[in-house]
Task: structure prediction
Amino acid sequence: DREEQRQRGRQPAAPTAEEVMAAASAVTAVAAPTCQVTEASLIGMREGGAKLYEVACSSGPGYIVEAVEGAPTAADCVQQSSLAWQLLQQDPAANVGLQCTLPGNQNRVQVISAYGQAAGVSCDADEAIALNTRVYELGCAGADGYRLEKSDAGAWSATPCWRYALISTGACQLTTAEESRTVWPKLVANTEVAACDIEDVSWMGDNPQRGAFYEVKCSSGEGIIVRFQNDATQQVYSCVDAVQIFSKPCSLTGDALAAGMEPENVPAE
Result:
C-alpha cells in the first residue's frame, strides 16, 4: 500500500482547464486553422504519447485533434456524429466509436443548416447529416429537404430532394416521398393547368439556357410537360402537342410521341 501511495505521489498533476485550453488551441491552430477555439477538453493519450483533445469552435464544426508532433490531425465532429447516426439507423446497438461530447459540439443540424444558407436555401431543419466530406443532407420539418454539395473551390450548391429523386437512382434519407410531393404543385402553379391534381412526375432532361423539363401526370389521366426554371414553370406543353419537340414519349400516361429533338435542342421560340 505504501509503495502504491509513493507511485501515485510521483504522477504529474492533471493539467488545469487553462493549460488544456492553451495546449488545445495551439495544436488546433495547425490542424484546423479556421477554428477559433471556444471550448476544449483533454480526452486521452495514444500509446505513443500523442494527446487527444476535443475542441469546439466559434463557428462551424468542432474537432477531435490528435497532437502528433510535427503533423497534428483533426477529425470533424459533424462527420463523426453523422457516421454514428447512420450506423445507429442500421443497428441501434452499433459501436459508433469516439464521439464529440462538448456542449458546443452538439450542433450538427446548426452547422449543416449554415452550409444550406451558403447555398441559398433555408428551412425549419429537423435533422441533417454529412454523407461524406463534400456532400450533406438537410431535412426540413414537414417539407422537402436538400442535398448540399461543396465544390473544389469551396462554393456550396443545393439540389431539392424532390428533384434529386427524379434525376438520380438515389433518394434523400431525411425527406419522405410525401414531403417531396408537397413541392409538385409548383410545377403547374399560375399556369393554364393549375387545376391539375398531380399524381406523378418524371424528369425528361435539362437545357442549360432554358431550364429543366418534367412530365406531369394529372389524376384525370392527362399528361403534360412543363419547362421549369428559376423555381417557377416557364412553359407548358401537351403530350400530344409536344410530338414535334421531344424525342422521348410521355411515359407516365403512355402517350407515344414521334421523334423530334432532345430538350437540349428545344427551339427558343
